[in-house]
Amino acid sequence: MDFKFRNATINDIDIIWKLLEQGIQKRKKEGSNQWQDGYPNKDVVRNDIENNYGFIIENDKNTIIGYIAAMEEIEPAYEIIEGNWLTNDKYIVLHRLVVDTINPIKGLATWIMHNIEQLILDREIYSIKVDTNFDNIGMLRIFDKLNYHYCGKVFFRGSPRLAFQKILSKKNEH
Question: What is the mean pLDDT of the chain?
Fold first, then answer.
């Protein structure tokens, strides 16, 4: 796949928001309550960009086709887990992975996850924590495929989420 992965800039916010709106509608059509409560929103994306958490994926025509936030900070919702994290080491939190659903590209979300893992390794951090809704079949498949370990349940904005962690090897073995 010939894609570019880079930090999002404030100039990207409207396009990122359009992708997130697609994701919000997709989850709604699937009958999920995930992303149906006003989150995420443009202010969340602006905060991602201002803190250098936001990353976009562009195709060979420089069109933004995906977005993910990778946050190098403690996620308060992860402090209490019904279960156990694999480690309590420093970690990156992943949120808001979305891809273009109007012109879908098979394997793009997996490609994004591989690239974000490499970015995290480049920062010499070896742990990723992430959560998703129990009915987000696409993300659950990706976590399984990429060897993320189910650790338990966390509560995010009052709703239970399935929590996963992956320990990255220093050689980045996929």
Answer: 93
Q: List, for residues 51-105, the tens digit of each pLDDT value.
A: 999 999 999 999 999 999 999 999 999 999 999 999 999 999 999 999 999 988 9
Domains and CATH numbers, the chain: 4-167 (3.40.630.30)
* Terminal Cα distance for the chain, rounded: 17
Q: Quote the pTM value.
A: 0.93
Instruction: Check if the beta carbon of residue 165 is closer than 8 Å to that of residue 114.
Output: no
The backbone region for 165, taken as left when phi is positive above 0, alpha when psi lies in -120 to 50, beta otherwise, is beta
